[in-house]
Specification:
Strand order of the largest sheet: 1-3-2
Largest sheet: 3 strands, antiparallel
Low-confidence stretches: none
Helix content: 55-70%
Distance between the termini: 15 Å
Number of helices: 4
Shape: globular
Structural class: alpha+beta
Mean pLDDT: 92
Number of strands: 3
Strand content: 15-25%
Order of helices and strands: HEHHEEH
Radius of gyration: 15 Å
Length: 100
């Protein structure tokens, strides 16, 4: 599983918890992946919307203009489960080899 897949998994995980706006997602990703480019994250979010894994909507903000929020769709929950299963299989294989 490459970094792109891991970042996608992280985005799906965060969105599975609750709807979030882009900067909030970026801030949380930077905590674990400090070198993640903003453009990379937004490209992944657009891709998730394009394939029907997420949707976006505008909501009012108490401290400024409306924000674009992202939420998971049923297809997104399925994709999240698939990526999570792949991640768990990878970590199990690495543990078997004594790497983890």
């Amino acid at each position: 599983m490459l970094k792109k897949d891991l970042i996608e998994l992280c985005l799906l995980h965060l969105l599975a918890q609750k709807d979030r706006y882009g900067y909030e997602l970026l801030r949380q990703l930077h905590a674990s992946f400090p070198n993640t480019q903003e453009s990379t994250m937004y490209a992944l979010l657009r891709g998730l919307c394009r394939v029907g894994c997420s949707e976006q909507y505008l909501a009012d903000s108490s401290d400024g203009p409306a924000r674009k929020y992202y939420c998971l769709t049923p297809a997104g929950r399925k994709r999240y489960a698939e990526l999570l299963a792949r991640w768990r299989a990878l970590t199990a294989a690495l543990a078997e080899l004594g790497i983890m």
